[in-house]
Design brief:
Strand 11 (199-203), helix 7 and strand 12 (233-235) form a beta-alpha-beta unit. This protein has a 10-stranded mixed sheet, covered by helices on one side. The protein has a two-stranded antiparallel sheet with strand order 1-6. The model has no long low-confidence stretch (mean pLDDT 94). The protein has helices at residues 72-79, 99-105, 124-130, 144-147, 153-163, 180-193, 216-227, 239-243; strands at residues 4-5, 7-14, 24-30, 51-55, 63-67, 70-71, 87-91, 114-119, 136-140, 167-174, 199-203, 233-235. By secondary structure, it is α/β, with parallel strands linked by helices.
Amino acid sequence: MATSTDIIEIFSSIQGEGAYVGEQQLFVRFQGCSLSCQYCDTPTSFIKNERCRIEGQPFTKQFSYVDNPISINQLNELLTPFATEKTLSVTGGEPLEQVAFLSEWLPTLKGKYRVLLETAGVNPQELETILPWVDIVSMDLKLPSVTGMKAYWDEHEQFLKLAREKEAYVKVVISSVMSVEDFQRAVELVAAIDPTIPFMLQPAAAFAEFRDVPDHESLNAWHEYAAKRLQHVRQIPQLHKLLKVL
């Protein structure tokens, strides 16, 4: 049981990744992530955020602050000014690492928002716990040659089999050092479960010390390979970075 949790920020913005790119959504970014992807662009996930920041008007970058941790009732009150938004993106960090809080909080949102879960796709048991209150699953497929971490093939397979019970799509970050074997295995994993699941190629963006950005020719080649095995393949860069919004 978790009556409160640490939250990094709350804001309304354009969805910059995945199947709903370009749609304005409400975002709640949760603290904490046990992964260490070398291209990670959310360093606030790994530090203790004493306060949560809330952007009052979208795209203004004008914030108010409240102390962490935040209770369920307090969080819902903080979301009240954003009542016109239709989709709530639950993001992080890795929100499923806060599954005890989510399992209590998400049921209180029923009928208020369409809930989109943005996740690394490595916590299948936690997903199963909250799946009844999630409408859309945005699942990353973490390729070890890109992340610099160990492989999560088994976890991804279990996760996607659960996620496809709802609307689901897969995002794969592509870098210039990605191995052929990793990409092919990712495509085959999705194809074996359901070749109609949308498959998003997301080119890695330069951030901090990370510079392994793929070129257009490579992206097109990966796209062509995946499209022979999957029905819905797209290349989608991080739109929010291009627009320079949160």
